[in-house]
Write the structure tokens for this entry.
Amino acid sequence: MSEAPAERLFFALWPDDDARDALAALARSRLAPGTGRLVPAENIHLTLVFLGRVDRRLRDCAERVASRLSMRAFTLEFLRIGYWPRPRVAWSAPQHTPALLTELASTLSNALVECGHEPTAKPFRAHVTLARKVRGPLRESRHAPVRWPVNAFHLVISETLPDGARYRRVRSWSLSEAPMPPTASMG
């Protein structure tokens, strides 16, 4: 019996139709034709933890770890567009990263250590890549708000095809709709 080939996997948030369509329209409206390669609307996502090429054992472990997490749902609001020259990407991001998003990403990353995953030393930067191989800078600015209700996170496989990458969700975990605990009164 042959072993399954390694898969390129990551954990991500996946937008609902409204958020996806709004982010794709934002990319089309802010990037001149020919200045970069727009991310296909169906590939728009927010990466939580990148696993890279993993074997079946690591995938199974990662799924068990994700199944144990109990995190709350939240809403993202994207308000900024910008450009990072080193990877040559245009992005959209929230003005401020919600604490529940940072907690989800760090809790998941830290829990995956038991599977042999090494967390990245880079700080988590909540963003959605809108275009790759962008030529020239794009001035960072605000844009009309794009609201993205987050009620699940997903394990995603990246498949390399002749016309580019395709991302496919292979498993999902719901986030709790539990109300926020009351804040302590100052007195």
